[in-house]
Known about the structure:
By secondary structure, this protein is α/β, with parallel strands linked by helices. It has eleven helices and nine strands.
Amino acid sequence: MRHLLSIDDLDRTGLEQLLDLSERFIEVTHRDIPKVPALRGKTVVSLFYEDSTRTRLSFETAAKRLSADTMTFTVGSSSVKKGESLRDTVQTIEAMGIDAVVVRHGSAGAPKRISEWIDAAIVNAGDGCHEHPTQALLDVLTLRRRRPSGLDGCRIAIVGDVRHSRVARSDVLAFSALGAEVTLVAPPTLLPESLEGWPVSVCYDLDEVLPNIDVLYLLRIQLERQHEALFPSLREYTSRYGLTAARAARLPADALVMHPGPMNRGVEISAEVADGPVSLIAEQVANGVAVRMAVLYTLLGSGGPVA
Ligand code: ASP
């Protein structure tokens, strides 16, 4: 693997190998000194053209725990403000001698373009509405840790703003590659115009699917990407698609709830459910570091022992 641009870059075996490696890095993160020398001498740059809390901090923590040097590029205080193009920006960064670039960009396909311009390994940390592969990896890792028998036959409902969600696109690919049955639940206006080729079924009614699922994966309503009114009001959305405590009580007893963050508490999920025992949200964040260590190690490591 040279780059990680899409979950499609991995087949089931590749996914499982990355998850197994992530487990080894979870063990590292639990040590007194959670650091290994695997990427000593390598430099990882985070290039974020869009806001981020979890993903950027998680990649930077991962790189540091592997002993790599890190550089952070913040668009707001860079020459992008003076009109420098994406290509000139990445070529300038590459000239400093770097090994990997973790890219988040508002345009679908930007990480792929960058991979054609420079030699460093490129990791897609979210490109427009297209993909967010490391989010999907941490999601499947989190689920696999809760379901030692694996995801085969696991019934997962992904609920909400699928249309604008790069998380949904990557998750559908990863969940289904590992054998899960995925149902998208949303009003028609929040689904992509075409679902051709998506290995999913669709339901417009959350209350109908609630009793028959193992995992409820909630998406954030991405108001920043919605340029027209796609539902009457947030209150109306919550009344039909929000995971309230009353709805959560109708889930099967061992069902699990996930959300990629950031959450709109009180819109797609109530605070009570988000902080309650069925929620895997904090585990997802914690597992993100190990998954990103596994990705960076796979792209940049010598293939030697994790240590
Ligand atoms: N943090 C995720 C992303 O960057 C999900 C979200 O923003 O809703 O795509």
